[in-house]
Amino acid sequence: MKTYPTLIGFEEALRIVRQAHITPLGKEKVVFSQALNRTLATDIVAPFDNPKYDVSSMDAYAFSSKDTQILITEGLELFPSDNPVENSTELALKKGCAIKTFTGARMPKNSDSLLIVEHAEIRDNKLFLKEGINLPKPNDFVRKMGQNYFQNDKLFAKGQEISAYGIGLLASLNQVFVEVMKKPRVAILSTGNELVEVGAETQNPNAIRSSNNHLLKALVESMGGIGVLYELMGDDLSAIKKSMQEALLENDMLITTGGMSMGDYDFVQVALEEMCEMQFKKARIKPGKPIAFALYKHYNITKPILALPGNPDASLMTFYLFGKILFNHLLNRGNQEDLPIMQAILEDEIMRKDTRLEFRFCSLKLKEGAWHASLEPVVYRNPKEHGVILLDEEVLHFQKGSVVKVMRLADLV
Question: Where is the MoaB/Mog domain (predicted)?
Answer without folding.
Answer: 187-329
